[in-house]
Design a protein that fits this description.
The protein is an alpha/beta fold. It has 16 helices and nine strands. Strands 1-2-3-5-7-9 form a six-stranded mixed sheet, sandwiched between helices. Strands 4-6-8 form a three-stranded parallel sheet. The protein is globular and about 60 Å long. The two termini are 27 Å apart.
Length: 358
């Protein structure tokens, strides 16, 4: 099969279609052109009788580090909101259609899996984590929100309760491969040394035999799964009715348990995040827990467009990605100054915005 674009190649082995993200110098981050190309490939293969399953992978050290936030930031600075809307509608509709895709998709979550990389893999039937997996939704650190339909998949999981979803989204917690399996964010774990063999077996498998082709590693009690040992503390702190309550819970825990560094490090991490992002994401997750996938698609498109008009997104990208001084100047600068009215505006559909049909 011919390569589809400069940054995406396609191939076929037996009855498995292979999509490889090839923008390795940017950790395979997705720009608008790549999103459009992926949508076309998935649409073309949907009715191709010669393809029974699709394998999705990234070249180099990352599966996919997210969306191209530099591209979005430049558009936002120009107030080119047609471009930003096109990006989000294309990305979120691709994510939605992957969730509804009629053929099994196998993603190799090797290396960095963040933001948009989570979006194109979360709805896959098989999500294979490895020793090198670093999974995260770090958007609150750049003045944005936890998008790519996370409002749905983090709140409709049998492995993740609401407190865990809020912890993952507010802190941008980085999870290793075994933690991904523990939380259900990955379906399988394959050690790096066995990954090539596992992929070869997938190619040679019949459709019904794919699960057996993947080397599954159970989770021994001594495995490196920090989030498992932290779960009780996470539920103690993040089972809260507001972001202010979470901060208060942490302050109380630090006072009562001065030797437990997790509480203090978590509080310091939250203090670095955009206060507006923290409050919007908290509201987003609470709402998402009662919504279906299509409703989440519409809600997140609206939230994303609102963030393009705020100073926090441009400032967050500057501080973390462009200048890398990690000293963002948030506006407002504290959670106490972010009002309920300001938060609710993010959930109003912007004027003249039509959510694309799925």
């Amino acid at each position: 099969m011919d390569a589809s674009s400069e940054f995406i190649s396609t191939d076929k082995r037996d009855s498995v279609g292979i999509i490889t993200l090839k923008r390795s110098r940017a950790l395979n981050s997705l720009n608008l052109e790549m999103l459009k190309d992926l949508a076309l490939i998935f649409d073309r293969w949907k009715n191709d009788a010669s393809i029974s399953a699709i394998l999705l992978q990234g070249e180099g050290k990352a599966f996919c580090a997210g969306g191209d936030i530099k591209q979005l930031c430049e558009a936002a600075k120009r107030k080119d909101f047609e471009t930003t809307l096109s990006f989000f509608q294309t990305e979120y509709t691709l994510d939605y259609n992957i969730w509804k895709y009629p053929k099994p998709i196998i993603s190799i979550l090797n290396g960095v899996v963040m933001g948009g990389g989570v979006g194109i893999s979360a709805g896959n039937k098989f999500r294979i984590a490895t020793d090198s997996t670093v999974w995260a939704m770090p958007e609150t650190a750049i003045g944005f929100f936890t998008d790519v339909l996370a409002s749905y998949f983090l709140t409709h999981s049998s492995h993740i309760n609401l407190a865990m979803a809020i912890y993952i989204t507010l802190t941008g917690a980085r999870l290793n491969g075994l933690e991904c399996v523990y939380t259900g964010l990955a379906s399988h774990f394959v050690p790096q040394s066995q990954l090539e063999e596992a992929i070869r077996r997938i190619y040679a498998s019949q459709l019904d035999d794919i699960p057996g082709a993947i080397t599954f590693t159970s989770l021994p009690s001594d495995a490196n799964i920090p989030i498992r040992s932290q779960r009780q503390m996470i539920e103690q702190i993040f089972s809260a009715s507001s972001v202010e309550d979470i901060f208060a819970n942490l302050a109380r825990a630090i006072r009562d348990h001065p030797d437990q560094t997790w509480f203090s490090s978590t509080l310091e991490k939250l203090k670095q995040m955009s206060p507006t992002s923290l409050k919007v994401v908290f509201e987003q997750i609470m709402r998402g827990s009662t919504m279906d996938l299509e409703s989440v698609h519409a809600m997140e498109t609206s939230i994303a467009q609102h963030f393009m008009t705020t100073s926090d997104f441009v400032e967050g990208v500057r501080a973390v990605v462009i200048d890398k001084d990690h000293k963002p100047r948030w506006n407002p600068p504290s959670i106490e100054q972010v009002t309920k009215e300001q938060v609710l505006k993010f959930f109003e559909f912007p004027a003249k915005t039509v959510i694309s049909k799925i």
